[in-house]
Every structure is written in C-alpha cells, then in structure tokens.
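Subgroup meeting minutes
Present: P.N., E.W., G.H.
Scribe: E.W.

1. P.N. recapped why we're keeping a running log of single-chain structure predictions: easier to compare across weeks, and new members can see raw inputs and outputs side by side.
2. G.H. added today's entry (345 aa).
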Amino acid sequence: MMNNLFLDNRLTAWATGLGFGIGLYLVLMLLRGLCRRHIKTLAERGTVRGAALVQRLLSDLNGIFILAVALWLGSRWLVLSEGAQTTMRIAVLLVVLFQVGLWSVGVVDHVIARRIRREAQEDAGHKTSLNALGVVAKIGVWTLIILVGLDNLPNVNVTSLITGLGIGGIAIGLAVQNILGDLFSSLTIALDKPFVIGDTINVGEFTGSVEHIGLKSTRVRALSGEQLIFANSDLLSSRIRNFKRMEQRRVVFQLRVELDTPTEKLERIPQLLREVIEGQADAAFDRAHFQSITDSGLQFEVVYLIATADYPTFVALQNAINLEIHRRFTEEGIVFARLVGYGKI
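Output recorded in log:
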C-alpha cells in the first residue's frame, strides 16, 4: 500500500517528506523559544554587547517563515512537477522576503531607539526627527521588498511599474517640494547637529535660544521675548552662529582719552589696562595699545579673553573691568574723551 503513487510520488516519500518537515518545524520552534529566553536574560543583565538587537531579531522570527523553510526542505524528498516547483519556490521566496523585511525594520527600530536613548537628555527635540527618519527608512525597506517580490512573480513587468511610479513620484515631488525640503532639512539637523535645543544661535539679524526642532520648522525664542519660526530649509541655507559652542569669548573694546593727555600717562595706560584685566579671575589679557589719534581723542584698543562662553559671566566681567578702569584712571588723573567706543566679537 505504501508503494501506491500520489501525484507521481510514493506514499512512503510523502510520509518521509511530511514527517521531516513537521519534525524540523517543531525543532526550530523549540530552539527559537529557548534562544528567546536565553537572549532575554542576557539583554536584561546587559552583559553581552548586541544582546538587545539579537532579542529583537528573535522576537521578529515569524512562525510562518520557519514552517515555510521546514516544508521546503521536506519537499526535497519528493519529485515535483516543474509547475509545482515554481509555485513552491515563489511562495517560499515571498515568505523569506517578508521575514527579511521584518528583520530590516527591527534593525531600523533598534538603531533609532538606541540613538534616541543616547540623546534624550542632550536634545529631546531630535526624537521627532529621528522617528521620521525611521519611518522613511522603513518605507524604503518595504518598497524594496515589494519590488523584489513582484519581480519574481510571473507575468509582472516591474520595469513598467517602476517607470510609472517614477513619473508619479516626480509629479508628487514637484507638488510638495517645499514640504519635502523642510523634512529632509529636519533630518539633516538631527544627524549633523549644527545646533540642539537650548543653544543660543544667530541667524542673520535674529538671535535667540532654540526651543523646538520640528519636521518642518524650528522655533527660536528671541532675546526680546518673541518667538521666531524658521523653515528648516531656510535655516540650513543661512549662516548660523552657535554661541553656546564657543569655547571662549574674545572681547575687543576701545576707549579714548583727551587729546592733551601727557605722554608719560599715555605710556602708562597699556600697563594699567593689563593690571586691571589680569586682576579678574576669569579674564586673560591679550593686548592693549595706542591705536589712533582722532578728532575726539586718543584711542586705545584692548583685547582680552574669557575662559567661558557664558553670556552672564561676560556681562558681569565687563562691568567689573569698566568700573576698575574708571577707578584707576581717576586715581592716575587720566581723563576720558567725550566719545568712548565699545564693541565685542
């Protein structure tokens, strides 16, 4: 009886193939369960690098994929017609592509989640942009998977489909090019980080603190109190000055004394300015020299460095230096000219 034929195969061959396929399926499912529990323990302990990623890949290991692989290997015991082999090959390939898609999406989610955790305290505003980047990546993965799957189906012309999608994509892209430009600019900000939330930046004539980095726009709180909203694409095309990333602040200022100031006092002024600046804990003297003679007075230029970029520290130090200069000049009998210029860079 076991020698009877069914679909050109003996019943013994069918029994062997089916038994092998089912047995292999059960063994693989058991191994999947054991590996999941073991990797979960390692991931919770944090003793193995990459355990969390392996845990995610195992959790995405689909039972249908395991069944398809087991049945395909079991079919090796059978002699199938060309049509049956083609059908099985396509079916298994589609299941494999689906599993590859699940794994690829899992890797994207893992990478994005790890990046968000690492930067959550530094810049929580990048979470939206990173999530958007993850969505774009996953759309790309599934688009590629679908195209490869369609390319393996009979009587399906993927080239014509891609051409049609390309023309439609161009039309849609032209219609929403500004939105897409801002979206990709947001992703660029998230990856390149020219600034983060909390940074004080200058864009053209506007200066303020970054409050929010969105998919389309970035919001900046101006020093005068109002909220400034910049399109991300416009922001990246502008020259941005990020004051928070200054390692030190260089201060330049000029002062003028009266035209009839005696030469011996003029010679004394650079040393006096050095003493004033070096007397401040956070300031480093650079230079002071007699710069020019003007109609309004004799002008000196002074340069010093501050070891911090903190603006309140700079203002307090500037105040202390000005007061000390005024006190020392009064003691020395040096009179300021009527016009005194002051600036900084």
